[in-house]
Amino acid sequence: MNLREINQRISDRSDCFYWQTDRKISAEEAAMIWKDRHSAITNEELLDKINDSLKDNKLAYIKPFDEKAETSLGNVNSIRVGVLESGKEVIIRCHPKGVRNGYFYAESLTSKIALENALPAYETYSIHELENESDVSYQVIEKLNGSTVQFFLKEHPEKEEQLVYEIGKTMAELHKIKVSGFGPFDNEQAKNGKLIGKHQSLKNSINAGLEENLERLVNYHILTKEVASNMKELFKDNELLNSNTSVLIHNDFADWNLLTNGDTITGIIDWDECVAGNPIQEIACWSTFFDPERIKPFLKGYFSETPVYDNFDEMFQLMRLRYTISKMALRITRYTYLQTPEFKDKIEKGQKHLSELVEIFSLANKNSKRSK
């Protein structure tokens, strides 16, 4: 595996709608990179590396890695919990060994801006970029209080409606933060404190990676060529994508990335998919994670903080289609090397959502409707 050549591809987000789906690596390369991302990095080597970059408050130790801990459930980074000499706990987010991250500065800047806008985000203490193939890219950040919503609701399912309402309110507050450009942020600009999306228009950012995603779904017999072609045309010329509104979007605002004390949202973590975009696209993204009945308390909370957007229903369904295409493309790729009942179930649910959306937009007919 040529890591130098892979690193040039994997860190390029210029043609990405959703990075995990659109990163320029094969399924075989993805399997090799992420299958042993935890065991390839020891706490001992991390401790030395991190203390070289920290100034006054050094790491005293790093806790033993627990793959079942709620901090370890992500698909991209290996997460460790460290304790500083002051006694304060920190989170160490490590990219797979030898693999360039290329987005830690953008992630940290978005969290910093969210924090400045009174949202429960985290402070970053240190960022290290990959120097060679035996090195590790990492980010040392503040450990926020609270349990993930995902873990909390397993023990307190009766609190779901209240917390979903609070999630909606928190997302609405996030979307009050205006940014420049669209799509993934320029990591080099973020190093200089500038949060700028790589695309000039919403239409370009939504169409990024679309053709390849559709080809993947056709190749795996999820879509017919006719339906895929109609989907491509729907996004190519859709007037709804002429919007100039660009706000900060987390893009993975799900239960596993939100912390709670049981009453409110106390933390927003894992900004590795953050982009500049239209607020409705994030609402649509959120909806693809959960059963349909969850949307009611969520929208009640969201629109308690902001007026309902123009053309909300039409834009919501259009963005739900785009995220479903993306997530299905990701799932079928992962299934080639992670053939679990859970992933099979996700693919079946995604197929059901696609069928509903094909009907909503009449995409099975050559003269498909266009959302106005």
Describe the structure.
- This protein is of the alpha+beta class.
- 43% of the residues lie in helices and 13% in strands.
- The chain has 15 helices and 12 strands.
- It has helices spanning 3-10, 19-22, 27-34, 43-53, 104-116, 149-155, 160-174, 187-191, 202-207, 210-219, 225-236, 279-287, 295-302, 312-335, 341-360; strands spanning 59-62, 78-84, 89-94, 124-128, 138-142, 147-148, 182-185, 197-199, 247-249, 258-260, 265-268, 275-277.
- Helix 10 crosses helix 14 and helix 12 (279-287) packs across helix 14 (312-335).
- The termini are far apart.
Describe the sheet with the most strands: 5 strands, antiparallel
Helix content bin = 40-55%
Tell me the number of strands.
12
Determine Rg (CA atoms, Å).
Answer: 20 Å
Shape: globular
Structural category: alpha+beta
**Strand composition percent:** 5-15%
Span between N and C termini? Answer: 47 Å
N-to-C SSE string, H for helix and E for strand:
HHHHEEEHEEEHHEHEHHHEEEEHHHH
Summed over residues and divided by their number, the pLDDT gives a mean of 92
Q: Number of helix segments? A: 15
Poorly predicted tracts of residues: 368-372
For the biggest β-sheet, the strand order reads 1-2-3-5-4
